[in-house]
Amino acid sequence: MSDDTEASKFNEKTLEAFLDGLLEELKHPQDPKLLEDVRRAFRKKVPFHLRSYASALMILRAAGIYRSKSPKKVVKEAHQEQAHIEQKPETQNKGMVSLFVSMGKRHHLDPVDLKKKIAERTGLSPDMLGRVHILEKYSFIEVPIHEAQRIVAAMVGAELNGRALEIKPAKKRSKSFSEG
C-alpha cells in the first residue's frame, strides 16, 4: 500500500478520539427524538449486513476522506470490482445471465413475486425476466445480460415478504466443486 492511499490519510488515534466523542455524545444527545428518527430510518433502509460498512463510510465522509459519488458512478465501480457476471452455456444464446438471489424455498420465495418486485424497482416487464431456479436457501434468476447491472443496482435495499432481498452476480463454481 502506498503512503498516499485513502486509508493512510486516516490516523488511527484520530479515529479512536472521534469514536470516543460519539459514544460520549450518545449518553446525552442534543435532540434525542431526532436521533431516534434517524436511527429508525437507518435501520429500515440499510440491511443489517451493511450497517457497519455504512457507518464506516459516513465516518470517512465526515472526515473529508471520501466524497459522495453519483449513483451511476457507484454502479459502474461496483461492476468493475465484482466478479464478472458469468454466462451459463445454456443461456448464452438467449442473451441471458444468472443472478444470485438471497432467498429460497426456506423463505417461501415465489417466482412471480420475485419477478414483480424486480419489475417494480426497475421498470422492466416481468416477461423480460427468465427462469427462476429455487434452491433451499437461495435461488437464481435469469435476466437479460444488458439489464443485469441495472437490476443489481436497483435491488439494493429491497425487501420481499418482510425480509432483506439481495440480488448480485452469480459466482462461477470452483473447478473442484463442479468436478467432484
Care to describe what's here?
The structure is a single chain. By secondary structure, the protein is α+β, with helices and mostly antiparallel strands. Helix content is 45%, strand content 12%. The chain has eight helices and six strands, in the order H-H-H-H-H-E-H-E-E-H-E-E-E-H. Strands 2-3-1-6 form a four-stranded antiparallel sheet, covered by helices on one side. It has a two-stranded antiparallel sheet with strand order 4-5. The protein starts with 11 loop residues before the first helix and ends with a helix.
Q: Quickly give the CATH architecture of the largest domain.
A: 2-Layer Sandwich
Uncertain spans = 81-93, 176-180
Q: CATH H level of the largest domain: which superfamily?
A: RRM (RNA recognition motif) domain
- Domains, number: 2
DSSP helix fraction: 40-55%
Instruction: Fill in the CATH topology of the largest domain.
Output: Alpha-Beta Plaits
- How are strands sequenced across the largest beta sheet? 2-3-1-6
SSE sequence, one letter per element: HHHHHEHEEHEEEH
CATH class group of the largest domain: Alpha Beta
> Gyration radius, to the nearest Å?
20 Å
Class from secondary-structure proportions: alpha+beta
Distance between the termini: 38 Å
Quote the average pLDDT.
Answer: 78
